[in-house]
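If your schedule permits, I should be very grateful for your opinion on a structural question. Thank you for your consideration; the sequence and its tokens are set out here:

===
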Amino acid sequence: MRVVTKFFSRLKNEGLKSTINHYISIVKNIIYFVLTKLVKYLPLRNTIVFECESDMDDNPRAVYEYMIKEKMYRKYRFVWVVKNVEFCEKNYGNKNTVFVSRFYDSPKSKLEFNYYLSTAKYFLFSHPYWFKKIHKKQLIIHTTHGTPLKGFEKALVNAPHPFDYVLCASEHTRPWFLKFLNCPSEKSFVCPHPRNDLLNVENRDAILSKLIEYNPQDKIIICMPTFKQSARVVDCEIVDEYSLSVVKTEDEFQNLNIFLKENNIHLIVKLHPLQVTENLKMGNTSNIHYIQNKELFEKKIQLYNLIGCCDAMITDFSSVMFDYILLNRPVAFFTNFSEKYNRGYIMDNPKDYMCGEKINNYNNMVEFLTNIVNGNDVFYEQRTHINRLVNNPLPDNCSKQFVETMLKLRN
């Protein structure tokens, strides 16, 4: 009786058309709700779901690009879980590729999201702490987003593992992955990071010209600090205002820019995607350039393509250096914060793996940059040794090896 009363009240106040549309919407929502529950019981299909914290990036992106190149879309449907569905559809759409968001804004998009996750045979991720396996026969692979170097997060110690297997970059580093994720060896397999395929860049100018103004003969150095403060974790109490570790004042920042300009060097500071930026000073200068993931994404530049364009790297002990030394180019390490990280390190002897110059103050940084200009590569032998430890054996096509392994794991 109350429903009938509401119906006639709405009919009187809003008219016939509005009333009909209102109740049609209610019926649709009920149908979507029921279907969302039912899709979990549908059989699995030849669908592969990809997910990365930064939309369409890292190892999942490299695997996807390889499978597109090999025309594997003829057999598989590819589904990307992204934040910006509209942008991805417009700029990154390929054959048999669908984009969905877990932040659905309608019952229809919720149904679509649940349908693909419920019926996918494969799910490849780098960060899905939100994910829960739906079917026992689904194959869930944690591709990781780098070799763990800093200590594990306490939240992971007793947490359930939302994956069947984790990719470990080499036999030497496999124990680090297992310790960091607190998982047994049988849930792992060794394979180089697929993203390493992207380091081999054929046309450097096509990438760099989208980001900075430079001359082709200029040296390009990328600085990649790990995050210190994020919305979820405070890795270090010290705020690195310039994200350059040893640069403490505006005078030092400007003097560094002058030095770079005089020596035809461009320094690209690639901020960690988790780093909060409210307290950072990212001033516009001629030769120091701050880049964030959003800019790379919008300009269709994959991070590892950018890394492959650079003549040297500076980091504060990020696992990206293990990938970068595949190019056999100089690496340097900020060490002035090395004892300040709250999580510590996954290994007992982190400095043994720092196969490059140690930058503990501003003068050390100038010395490293001067060596780059003069072609002094004093850590070649140590870098070669570490590369053999953490990266061998390395095939010509890392993504191909990963895909072949993935398909075998299911059989």
